[in-house]
Amino acid sequence: MSEEKKVAFKKIQATGHMRKIMADYFYELDRASKEGSPKVAWCTSVGPAELLLSLGFVVHYPENHGAVLGSTRVANDYIPVANAIGYSPDICSYLTSDIGAFIKKETPLSRAYEGIEGVPKPDVLVYNTNQCRDVQDWFSWYSRELNVPALGISTYRNIGEITKEHLDSIVHQMKALIPPLEDISGNKFDIDKFREVVSTSKECTALWKKVLETNTAVPAPMSFFDATIHMGPAVVLRGSAQAVDYYKVLLKELEERVANNEGAVEGEKFRIYWEGMPIWGKLRALAELFITLKTAVIASTYCNSWIFEAFDPEDPFLTMAKAYTEIFIVRNENFKEKYIEDMVQKYQIHGILFHDAKTCPNNSNNRYGMPERLEKKLGIPTLTINGDLNDLRCYSEEQAQTNIEAFVEQLETK
Amino acid sequence: MNFVGIDVGASTTKSVIINDKKEILGYAINNSGADFKAAAEQVFDKSQERAREKVSDEWVVMATGYGRKNVPFASRTKTEISCHAKGSFFHFPQAHTLIDIGGQDSKIIKVNESGKRKSFKMNRKCAAGTGAFLEEIANRLEVRMEKLNELASKSDKNIKIGAYCTVFTATEILTKIREGVEIPDLVRGVFGSVINRALEMDPLEGNIVMTGGVVAYNPFLVSMFEERLDRKIYVPPLPQITGAFGAALYALEAKGGRHA
Questions:
Q1: Coil vs helix vs strand at B123
Q2: B79 neighbourhood in chain A, CB within 8 Å
């Protein structure tokens, strides 16, 4: 069986459109950085981006840059550089690869986009610890290094029910950001502008949700591996009309696939839920493996984390606080378990794959007995594979492949 | 027609030839080395030479193990997880938990009363608790691998040795040597560490079966495990070739033979 079969990928036609709006976005950031106007804010991926956009900032997302370092498989060139200055190989590999790349004055953006020499220089760094503490440490490094203010929101963690007290605190912290952000941007806060951005973000997020939900169809039109790439605009352009337009195009294409009974995986036999971070450097290899196994990875916690249903321009502060607090990663184990259970029903899932990402405990939900509890409760098997979002030293391809193949063989005997 | 299972493992490659009555005609074991393809060919030739009756010119070959995709003469592949479960269930046709300790990984596989796999777990990346781990420790103690069983059986002391990381364990052993602990006691302690590693992987339920090269060469480890669990552990007649035998059974099924 040494002959490797050629794997037929079904290319998403809208990809070209996405590349164009992403390129425009990076060039706009680069221009702002070089010209000093508009001001550049760095923001965590589920941070208060809408507030920043309403104040006229252009926004760079270091996590997106981290994912680019991972997917272009250069992260491991940079992680050791950050390790050497005291940032452990056990902490977030987005952080270590991004800081390492900065120290070496390199970025894959300059290879992809002619004329871009580096990441845009920040005027302010704004984080929300709703995902983890690492984002704060990450931004604090840049703050010290570049002498740029790091402002942030500290969120509650591991919460079940969201209470008024939780939200009041977040609203208070968001409002406290306004005066320093006004100073840095040189613009006055305008509630109508803020409402407008929240409204556009809401539209984007609603479309992204619809895109993901096309995968409730059997066969599913889009793989998880495609979705991780196509969620780019939902992360970095979510307050913009371009993202809204893009998701209309993508949605139409996927709806057509559904109408034509066309799955992302030819001859889809099994449907898998991916829990945890993507393994950015191995998206293609994993996508190929699953295609050869006629198994479709079709739903995930990760891609659903950029659905912010609570947004309401009528009450932008409170609903933004709610949207950024009710996401999966902020919640307790009971909430998470129920969430996955609902996803399994909704997407007719045959098995759950947990990715235990070595450097991302907050996105590794296998560590407190959840796979075992869900197996019992749902009567479907789970598989845990060891890996990492960016640090490929933590990933054994052979071992993961054997585990995945054995898992599918197990599903076949059901 | 004959049916062949080739298990290209990280340390050794195994070949088993069976007939349509599921009887083993011949088998062979070789080091896998650096050329999996050559190892598979050699071990297949050897198993034919050693066959107790003439091997048919027609055969179906199923490859398994880490090098399963490097066996050009195999018509199909199946993971070692499935093949071990298959081979084990042939010998113990009842619900059981299988512990396979191979060269570079260990597995815990649970099968139900009809032989279907319920779950499986493989060791995390570190080789602690596997054959490679024992090899490293034997090297550190300057004893030959094949002597480990005899040495461990001479000891009745329960020295605690960690099972978290091979390098940590090797360091721990250096400390014990400095403290004057005898070699047999250390080896017994290392066997205990392999057992601990298996116990932390998955709860063991019902009947227990053990397979793999480590079990084949170190029956005393099985006795220690039995003592620890206070119950009988079943070991198939040729524990090291369980995966290859399971692969041969799959080859037979693929050709429409009787189901195991």
A1: coil
A2: 402, 405-406, 409
Comparing CA positions, the residue from B5, B100, B105 lying closest to residue B61 is B5
Number of structural domains in chain B? 2
pLDDT of A5 reads: 57
Look-up of token digits 């920043």: A52
- Give residue B56's pLDDT band: very low, low, confident or very high (50, 70, 90): confident
Write the DSSP assignment of A76-114 as a string of letters.
HHHHHHHHHTT--TTS-HHHHHHHHHHHTT--HHHHHST
For residue A213, the number of C-alpha atoms closer than 13 Å in the C-beta half-sphere is 8
> B159 by DSSP, 3-state: which?
coil
Is the Cβ of A406 closer than 8 Å to some Cβ of chain B? yes
Q: What is the residue range of B25's domain?
A: 1-92+239-260
Report the amino acid identity of residue B100.
D
Does B215 share its domain with B158? yes
**Residue A123: closest CA among A211, A200, A35:** A35
Q: Residue type for A59, please?
A: V
If asked whether residues B156 and B197 sit together in one domain, one would say yes
Q: How far apart are CA A336 and CA A232, in angstroms?
A: 24
Domain boundaries, chain A: 15-412
Instruction: Tell whether B83 and B198 lie within a shared domain.
Output: no
Do B113 and B216 lie in a common domain? yes
What pTM did the predictor assign?
Answer: 0.92
CA distance A23 to A17: 10
- A101/A68 Cα distance (integer angstroms): 11
* Sequence-distant (≥ 6) Cβ neighbours of residue A37 within 8 angstroms: none
User: A1–B71: do the CB atoms touch at under 8 Å?
Assistant: yes
| CATH code, domain carrying B249 | 3.30.420.40
Contact (Cβ atoms closer than 8 angstroms) between residue A276 and residue A388: no
* pLDDT tens for each residue of B128-175: 778 888 988 898 899 999 999 999 999 999 999 988 888 888 889 989
Q: How close are the terminal C-alpha atoms of chain A, in Å?
A: 26
Predicted pLDDT of residue A258: 98
| Residue A180 DSSP class | H
Give the closest-approach CA distance of A285 to chain B in angstroms: 16
**Residue A50 near residue A128, CB atoms below 8 Å:** no
Residues B110, B184: one domain?
Answer: yes
**Cβ-proximal residues to B78 (8 Å cutoff; 6+ apart), any chain:** A409, B62, B63, B64, B68, B247, B250
* DSSP secondary structure string for all residues of A16-32: HHHHHHHHHHHHHHHHH
Please choose, from the candidates B223, B219, B10, B6, the residue with its C-alpha nearest in 3D space to the C-alpha of residue B133. Answer: B10
Shortest CA distance from A406: residue in chain B? B79
pLDDT below 70 — which residues of chain A? 1-5
Task: Give the C-alpha separation, B21 to B35, whole Å.
Answer: 33
Is the bond preceding residue A219 a cis peptide, omega within 30 degrees?
yes
Whether B129 and B162 map to the same domain: the answer is yes
Measure CB to CB from residue B125 to each of A381, A386, A402 and give the nearest one: A386
Note the pLDDT tens digit of each residue in B64-84.
999 999 999 999 999 999 999
The pLDDT assigned to B104 comes to 84
Residue ranges of alpha helices (H) inside A261-312 are: 283-292, 301-304
Q: What is the DSSP code (8-state) at residue A159?
A: B
Residues from chain A that touch B82, judged by Cβ atoms under 8 A, are 406, 409-410
May I ask the CATH class of domain A15-412? alpha beta
Distance between A2 CA and the closest CA of chain B, angstroms: 5
The answer on pLDDT for B101 being more than 80 is yes
As to burial, measured by CB atoms within 10 angstroms (0-12 exposed, 13-18 middle, 19+ buried), residue A212 is buried
Q: Is the domain of B113 the same as that of B192?
A: yes
Per-residue confidence band for B90, with pLDDT thresholds at 50, 70 and 90: very high
